[in-house]
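User: Structure please.
Assistant: Input sequence and predicted structure:
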Amino acid sequence: MVSAAEQLAANMNLGAFAKAEDLKKRLWFTLGALLVYRLGTFIPLPGINPVAFAEAFKSQSQGILGMFNMFAGGAVERLAIFALNIMPYISASIIMQLMSSVSPKLEALKKEGEAGRKQINQYTRYLTVLLATMQAYGIAIGLEGSQSSSGLVVADPGWFFRLSTVITLVGGTMFLMWLGEQITQRGVGNGTSLIIFAGIVAALPSAIAGLFEMARTGALSTILLLALFALMLVVVAAIVYFERAQRRLLIQYPKRQVGNKMFQGDASHLPLKLNSSGVIPPIFASSLLLLPVTAAQFSAGQGPDWLNSIVASLGYGQPLHMLVYVLLIVFFAFFYTAIVINPQETADNLRKYGGFLPGYRPGQQTADRIEYVLTRITVVGALYLGAVCLLPEMLISYASVPQSFAAILGGTSLLIAVSVTMDTVSQVQSHLLAHQYEGLIKKSKLKGASLPKGRK
């Protein structure tokens, strides 16, 4: 049963939400922007034979196109103007983040504060345009050479089609980048993450409907159907637990004297997340694994024998595929964590402000301790990512679960969905808390103004 304190807190939150007009406007703006995004995923590119493309896409949906289609909310399958989605911007952001730790110029810009951050964001936009243009041109060339039993995918191939396709797809990506920035500034949550989240969640109803249809026709037993939904709840709970897990290192600050006053020493914590790399390792690992499969599909099985052997060994459910997948996830987890968290820089910052880890000298000893703890927890975080991402593979291979539902049940999609939901809920709670503080400040000012003269 819910305790009285929890019920009171829930009532206070509901009351604060009813009075938080600014939060309501932000939520409505976020919903409206996501609705615009979803409408754009149904506007097709000009000059495409939709029937022929649907047949061509169906034969290649197991490759990297299938993963992009999942992130794009079905826009790739419909070849909509948002087919590239916001993935070029994410790739550009990751590249700039990697370059910031390698290039001294970018690292100096990163340390300049707000001005440096704006300059790096501008470089990220330029790189997004470049990546989107290259991808859009590759898609245009690929479409011109595609055909199915219904005929050619492109009705009138040529430079006009290529140019119009590049302009449309790049324009769609830049619009989504702008829309994500507007959601971040004027809405609730991270706009880029919410756009990907909307695409993933949009595929959930059709996947669940497909499961119920399989259960109705007898292709899937009722017990297995219930077990899948129970497993989904367990996976969500496990993701929430591991994503919120932290290893807190105690930090002590010594006593200090300012003028004639002596301030007591303070204590705080350095939180180190169990999974500092987020969803980057599964995305990179999936992309690398799907590259040979996609190349073989484009060659229609007429490629070299070594490529066909690799594709056969890296197929879904194969032991080599699972092993390589886990190894890639572990590698990228350590690689990206080393980029995001620099133990030496953290130790230098602690020494600069007078903080230290009890039992360890400031400087190199502190950096070694942070690196030791970070390495140990990253091992657990990488294994957790590997277990979650292997779950759909095992369900597809050994439980005959449809790929559309298995991909949502585990792996990158569910990680993104749960992480974005947690981040958005925390931001809503922050807005509610700020609104409550503003109300208390206004009340205290009114009470102070109503007191008689001479009294404080």
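Residues 1-12 have pLDDT under 50 and may be disordered.
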